[in-house]
Sequence to fold (281 residues):
Amino acid sequence: MLIECDRQKRQYRIALNNMSNGAELAADLSYLEGVPAGVLTFDFTHMAAGLTQETREAYLPGNFGFQPTISLLEIVSTIASFTERAAICPHHLAVVLPNKKSRVGRFLMDMGLPAILKKMKIDIGEANPANVELGRDDLTRKNLIPLTVVDTLFGGQPNFEVYEHILKRVETVFTEALPGEQSLINRFTGIVNEAIDNLVDYGQGGIIGGLCYPKIGEVEITMVNRYGGFGGTTPDEELEALIEACEGKTRRTNGGGIGIACYYLAPIIAIAIYHANRRYA
Fold:
């Protein structure tokens, strides 16, 4: 949400909270087109520590934790797209994060948000959270995949060192969650492997991030492609294309953003696949 637009002082500020997404941020940025050059600040201090205070097992894992990774990645990818247009963007870009003494500040740091913003050459500051931190944190949560840029090297190939590191972390989590179920471990890891292949083949790389909640049996992995859609013109067509990709029937045409949420609820195993349908350039 655009909360400051002072054309005289040339100060512009966009507040980002837990429910902010790429479309909202893109709309705020479009409103600033043509304003005098100044300082544009992305303010993350409005992110609350917990989305919900729900603790009843019957109502989890829905909306449990700090931040849906799909929303966080959309925000980061939209900022990345904006910085890539810096040659024609007159603004000095800055970010204000919740300080590391706060729970939400520590969460964002552990997810690698400061590190990925530094790679974008954005000035980073800290401040107290704008909201009182209520509720309890899930101390079993693991940062499965901190925000990671999946780059393509010369010839369109991925950076295999990063690629293998991501897959190793994913396999380790599924191995811990599904002891003795090597076939299922291989299938889940294979789906993530295919998704990253799509990220590279369709979107020329992108950003990936993921969380694991062992207490409630949830693994959430989200990816946002650098370019394109995911082989369809509607959400249903894009979902169909993603399912075909996971079944090995993929047609390598044009790319798009995809997300994978894996829920291991032993002894019953289920997997839900959804798509982000976003791009950041």
